[in-house]
Amino acid sequence: MDPTHIFWITSRAAGVVALLASSAAVTLGLLMGGRFVAGRTAQLRVTHEALSLATIAAIVVHAGVLLGDGFLSPSLADVTIPFVSGYHRVWTTAGIVAGWMLIVLGLSYYARARIGVARWRTLHRFTALAWLLGVLHGLFEGTDAGTAWFLIAAAAAALPAGGLLAARWSGPPPRAAVP
Amino acid sequence: MSHPLPEPARERLAARARRIALIRRRVIVATLATFALAWGVIAFDGSMGTTTTGSTLGGTTSSSSDGTTSSFDTGSAYSGDSPAPVTTAQS
């Protein structure tokens, strides 16, 4: 294998991990916030938090490793600032916005006392929107989006979250005791 | 001054901490395993994409050490918002 491809492959693999981990985190978050589980919310919350941190780490690797790619040679601005990159501008921007939202909203959990729990909870709902943007980024820009393995894995992870999200948006408001 | 917790409460807290640590470890292991698996599948699959762009990002077709021209793609499809695409062979 050409060693110059290592950064490219690593970035793609990290993107896949970000997609799967964020989908699992959103699924658990929606399960906790809805009336689907009872009794195990403490364990689910720990798993949800760990998956969120894994998502953030994967996003940082996904974008950061790309800086080492000798072919694409993106600048830091290309991978961090919306609309700067000319490469698939719309979907790259969707990915950048999704990444920043997931990072900021995810880490805001640790500042919720300062933010105010009610305000934080309102903000936290935008995580679903960030996740949706990330899924679109992966599907419409991802190099692996045309492969069966990617589509199967993405569907297995994203469809449950999408179903729960649709149920949440079409159903009654969630109970208040969300983390 | 804080009072020491009674033994049963300490045990419950320790058990809870162990459960949390176990869950975190499992998530870390699952994440790393998924990353390794995805990396392996992508590398094994061998596809670096199908086209390369004229590149607005400064990428160019490069020559490899064996003298053949090669490049790899940065996406699955050309988006059309940058200079004309140049179709190349897979490296």
Give the helix/strand layout:
The complex is a heterodimer of chains A (about 180) and B (about 90).
Chain A: H1 6-33, H2 41-64, H3 76-80, H4 89-107, H5 112-115, H6 117-124, H7 126-141, H8 148-170
Helix pairs in contact in A: 1-2, 1-7, 1-8, 2-4, 4-7
Chain B: H1 7-45, E1 62-63, E2 69-70
Antiparallel strand pairs in B: 1-2
- What is the string of SSEs of chain A from the N terminus onward? HHHHHHHH
Strand composition percent of chain B: under 5%
Count the beta strands of chain A.
0
Could you tell me the number of beta strands of chain B?
A: 2
Q: List the uncertain runs of chain B.
A: 51-91
Task: Describe the oligomeric state of these chains in a short phrase.
Answer: heterodimer
Overall pLDDT of chain A: 91
Mean pLDDT of chain B, as a whole number? 66
- Side by side, the strands of the main sheet of chain B go 1-2
Indicate the proportion of strand residues of chain A: under 5%
Please give the alpha-carbon distance between the first and last residues of chain B: 69 Å
Radius of gyration of chain A: 17 Å
What's the helix-strand series of chain B? HEE
